[in-house]
Amino acid sequence: MESTLVNRKKLNPDGSPQERFGVRVRRLREARKWTQDELAARMGYSGRHISAIETANKPPTLPVARALDIAFGLEGTLDTFERQWNEIENGALVEGFPEYVGKEATAAEIRLFDVGLVPGPLQTSEYAAAVEAGNVKRGSITAEQATERVDYLIRRQAALVRPLPPMMIAVLDESCIRHCIGGLEVMERQLARLIEFAEQPNTSLHIAPFVMGELRPFNRSVNLLTLADRSVVAYVESQARGYLDREITSVAPLMRAYHQLQTEALSQAESVAVINQVRKGTS
What we know:
By secondary structure, the chain is an alpha/beta fold. It has helices at residues 17-31, 36-43, 47-54, 62-72, 81-92, 97-104, 125-137, 143-158, 175-178, 184-198, 248-264, 268-279; strands at residues 109-114, 167-173, 203-208, 221-226, 232-237, 242-245. It has two domains: 17-91, 434 Repressor (Amino-terminal Domain) (Orthogonal Bundle), CATH 1.10.260; 95-122 and 157-279, Endonuclease Chain A (Endonuclease, Chain A), CATH 3.30.870.10. Helices cover 49% and strands 12% of the residues. Strand 5 (232-237) and strand 6 (242-245) form a beta hairpin. Helix 7 (125-137) runs antiparallel to helix 8. The radius of gyration is 22 Å and the shape is elongated.
């Protein structure tokens, strides 16, 4: 009998990625005739933690996945728990986003537009953490998933730092700089980060002011990538899902609309001036 009180909840091996993770942990543990406490001791966790993982009551983290791989001798194989964790993590992200980020990491040019929130590549880590903390409070993700999302963003940003960095053009709706995230101090540092971004030789920053009204062509996040072969892909995101589009017949109108947006938006000098004006209210 296991020393940890075991919840023998029957899991569906064909269920959610998190359920499949738990089913596999239980199957491999029982095949070795280990109790939850014995597996936990090998990993440096508690038996209750293992029970929660097996019953899908707690989402696995990357450190847990790696510890499981060590305990079960799966390191270096093609079927690690770390790989399975990545499937869960990507599943928690907006559909289509991981594929987009992979292409963004090698793109020659990146064009960003967003409403309400500063685009990910321009976010400070504390701004990103505040955004995810809001998601935790609303119950849409767990605290662990929030930490993992911020870590994912940091890795995404790091991939853009390379010997020949991409040309990055960002057009932000005015709401991005006026929507206070994380409190005044966090927002002040985020606005300062935008100024730093504008000062880089490979960047261009523009604010689309509220007075643009109906001339603003987009009402949601739009990203356009020019790849090394000069092909262009578009990523358009809503609240629940994203869509990566490679078809020139649909990408070309988005690129044309983006150029129109950039033309109607404030110049970089005007945009920096507006950001500094907003900063006076956060300091």
